[in-house]
Amino acid sequence: MAPIQERAVSDPRLLVGTRTSDDAGVYLLTEDTALVQTVDIITPVVDDPCDFGFIAAVNALSDIYAMGGRPLTALSFLAFEPCDLPNEKASEILTGALAALGEAGCTLVGGHTLEDPEIKFGLAVTGTVHPDRIVTNAGARDGDLIYLTKPLGTGIASTALKGEMVPDALLTEATLWMKTFNSEAAQAAVEAGATAMTDVTGFGLLGHLAEMCRGAALGAELDHSSIPLMGNIPEMINSGMVPAGAYDNIKFLDGMVYRGDHPDDLLIPLYDPQTSGGLLISVEPGRVESLEKILDSRNVFFSRIGKFTGKSKSINILS
Ligand code: CO
Ligand code: CO
Description:
It is a single chain. The chain has ten helices and 13 strands. The chain has helices at 49-65, 87-104, 154-162, 168-178, 183-191, 204-216, 233-238, 244-252, 264-271, 288-297; strands at 14-16, 25-30, 33-42, 70-80, 107-115, 120-129, 145-148, 196-199, 219-223, 257-258, 279-283, 303-309, 315-318. Strands 8-11-7-12-9-13-10 form a seven-stranded mixed sheet, sandwiched between helices. The protein has a six-stranded mixed sheet with strand order 1-2-3-6-4-5. Helix 3 crosses helix 4 (168-178). The chain is globular, with a radius of gyration of 19 Å. It binds cobalt (II) ion (2 copies). Residues 23, 63, 66, 198-199, 201 line the site of one cobalt (II) ion.
């Protein structure tokens, strides 16, 4: 969910609102059911319209999973220029989205299209969560360990695709990761009693970690060498295939991140805006073994990348 200015909303049923820039809003319906609502619209990250639709849906669903919720229904939104994008391509985007929603057990109940010179597609997704099982992005505690469940690099890969520089292997890898649901990782986190969770999207790893730090009034230490990247990412950075959004994120986080003696280029992936990125999961040290076991049993990729610490309110990149 995009950050919106803090608004004074006083409704006791609003369990998670805009204040903490969380993945989705959560609204209490009954004693044991809360609604989880989110909307996410993106521009094409791959050329194939069917893959793009699939990825846009996985990306939108992810915000429901990141709250510990289960998706139920979705509304689609498509903006396109009928002259540039023939109707069959538009329908392929929807086909891809429907395939993803089908896998997630989420029902498309409607949608809206709009004429626009730039293609955009996304979904508003509604799900449910038990009020006691909500995992916000703000619950981390001092000493909790931080896990990441997908390698970084989708923004750089899409930029290289647009620049006609992308190696086939990287395009295949990035597409595969963007089409990977966060449902299994999220369920593992809920089962293991994670203290906080969010998905890595437009603000990059460091931007979303910074939100977790702010929400918990903690700092974090990252072990640089344990942060997973997709293949070919360093050479793409050397070729200048860095999205403008990565530089926006660097500027936005200025003063919050201590980079040690890492040269800029090495840290760019940590600021790279991700589409359908992995989850950041915070778990107390005593639950680490249980989390790793459940992630393994669900065949979820993961890397332990650092920990939250009360020593500073900043993110320190070590090693
Ligand atoms: Co999110
Ligand atoms: Co390093």
